[in-house]
Amino acid sequence: MLRAILRAGLAAGAIVAASAAFADDDVVNIGLILPMTGQAASTGKQEQAGAQLYLQQHGASVAGKKIALIIKDDGGAADVTKRLAQELIGNDKAKALMGFGLTPLALAVAPVATEAKVPEIVTAAATAMITEKSPYIVRTSFTLPQAAAPMAEWSLKNGIHKVVTFVTDYGPGNDAEKWFSDTFTKGGGTVVEQIRAPLKNPDFAPFLQRVKDDAPDAVFVFVPSGQGSAFMKQFAERGLDKSGIKLIGTGDVTDDDLLADIGDPALGAVTTHHYSVAHPSPENKAFVEAFKKANGGLRPNFMAVAAYDGMALVYGALEKTKGATDGDALIEAMKGASWISPRGPVSIDPQTRDIIQNIYVRKVEKVDGELYNVEFSTIEAVKDPFKAAKN
Ligand code: VNL
Asked: Which CATH architecture has domain 144-273+358-388?
């Protein structure tokens, strides 16, 4: 892992060197901390590519400042994330930290952000309570309650009465389980069983056998980005794709960059999420085309879009502060910011610093020989319901 950190550090060094024409004071370092290695490496890759695409398209300067991204690999280990955050602030004078591929990694940095008064822009991790852990946290990804509750609403209206929930056993999975189950039960549905699988190296097979034995109308699934194809393959191996048990979930399981690998067993899965590579807007068409071109044909997923939007948030804030990089000024400028993302219109809730966005109901379909999450219904401007319920 050390080698990977050094390599990422060197690459970032090259970006900084390119900004030599600007005086040191005019360079704004942004620390992008991601799992570039380890189990969540696909998230790191997508996020890095998303942030770099924004930089490439919008130029590395804004409000008279030169923007330099310093990319660091935490290997998915929270103690490393925290140390890198401290070093980026202490040594590199980073004015914002971005990334955080998993909930524990985002949480580890919260006290660092608070103490240093440096914005922590969470572009991946999605447990609802994260933004409550520091007044310097702003999020451009999503929250699991925001995505999971609409799945329950849709299920209630579409002939699904009995559901088994299947989630990865940590923050976002627990949020998904709770917000799907509570919403579904309140509306008259029955949750037959709630199954949780471990985050690290899960063997889904024994859990899937339980789903099969329960014979529900549907299984509601949350697994983090990157695990969807292992899950779906074992789902198909157990014959669940042909068992009449419908697959529903948040869009993490039918991740855009994994659909080709999953193949036909994904067909017909209905999920709720904030981004599909098939989102039919001119902004998204341009984004997808440019992303693929810059990354050897790789499809962007929701992680890439959140990092792209994290950069949009920083650029917008710097414009508002006229280049001032004081942490309090930047956070104030981010509150209430709104823009058109490749995913659709978004804004930052000034009360919670979480993102308000459309949630789309989508179905996996084959279009021109390729699998896509095809959006067929939109719930507009959804706020994180976890925080809305408290206010
Ligand atoms: C998290 C949530 C991570 C959703 C994910 O993929 C995801 C998290 C890495 O909060 O840890 O799809």
From this structure: 3-Layer(aba) Sandwich (3.40)
